[in-house]
User: What shape does this take?
Amino acid sequence: MTEAMPRQRKKILLVSAHPEPRSLNAALTTFAVERLRAAGHEVRVSDLYAMKWKAAVDADDFPDHVADERLDVLATQERATLAGRLSSDVAAEQEKVRWSDAVILQFPMWWFAMPAILKGWIDRVFSNGFAYGPAVPPPYSEGALGGRRALVSVTIGARESAFSERGVHGRLADVLHPVQHGLFWFTGMAPLEPFALYGAVGLPEQRFAVAKRAYGRRLDGLFTDEPVAFRSLIGDYDHDMRLLPGAEAPGASGLDLHVR
Amino acid sequence: MTEAMPRQRKKILLVSAHPEPRSLNAALTTFAVERLRAAGHEVRVSDLYAMKWKAAVDADDFPDHVADERLDVLATQERATLAGRLSSDVAAEQEKVRWSDAVILQFPMWWFAMPAILKGWIDRVFSNGFAYGPAVPPPYSEGALGGRRALVSVTIGARESAFSERGVHGRLADVLHPVQHGLFWFTGMAPLEPFALYGAVGLPEQRFAVAKRAYGRRLDGLFTDEPVAFRSLIGDYDHDMRLLPGAEAPGASGLDLHVR
Assistant: This one.
């Protein structure tokens, strides 16, 4: 009887990126924290604006970097990561990711992508040696962060039809491919279908109530919903990292090639 | 006789996003400036790291914003833009975009997207009232910035096959869709095919020389090469912003639906 099964206490990192504490994004963050805690989970929140998160990768990320030396970002990141010599703000976020069983990114879609401050969280925290690179398991399968689940919760000004199969902005799955496949799946995290709140500008209270119910169901399924079935690099692709001939699902094309 | 035609002097804004002045990206920026000036054009450079560009949209962008007021980013941006009351760093960049006949974005691909500092240039400079919104011409056709050309020049660590038609990372055109279609074409700019330098980590001098020749040809064609033929919102889409039935090119699917 599933009702009698003991709940599994999990650890969730929620990363939120909106400058206004009374925004819709902040409200969704608060809602998620309460919902997940009520289900018995542990939740930590990185509220990037409240933290005054530094967005740009630069030499200050690497305390050992010699001032006049050429900054090779990849090599310097790897050296600093493996030596445990990253700036303390980055190290603290890596510790949260390592601690987590799931990561949720909460953001408004700006220019068909995440806000700069959140991109800067990724650029700096998902460093060479931590999230990818020769020192960790290979991408697109086990990955450096394998065993974790990942969910995008995004607010979007446009209506849903504009992000539908034939919508002018492109399918939401395609627009978010750099995050779903390029960030989450690359690092071995299991990405769930994104939760999108469309028509988010001046959202009436009644529609927000409906949205919260829908988001609540997604949060309840964080560890049980089926993730997007992206393909494994090992087995499905050749040595040039191209999908093997005939491996695609019948009729699949575009970015759907990479879904089983 | 084309040889005898007087050259047209054009204005180009080059936006560059790498923390290291001796990087490959910096070298490509320098090369582009010299090539375009040698062709008789005017060039201005926004070197975002050198400018210490603030990446995150926040209340400081709006000098008239009252400290305790709820920050509605969209509405506040529009009001400040139309009143000419944006922070001076944003206003200066808008003036450069307005001045330009073409915009070039030079950046390393980090996590299948642009670095945070460049995303923050877009989030802050391409404001409501300047790049989109009810006060300017409609998107995906004339647009707020119509009449300009736009080029991405990107360095990529991976090899080209991984971004090819069946490559594991997705086609480069799909990965850059949020920029090519969502930023450039949305605002009415005519996007050229991106210039990509693959295998950019530890690039041997000889391969850099080859890359410069290829990039030089792209710069020479900045105002004559055929742009990507994205569809116009007016005529090709219905009122729900979905591509009209049967409008697609034969066999087109995925994001290619939006190319004529």
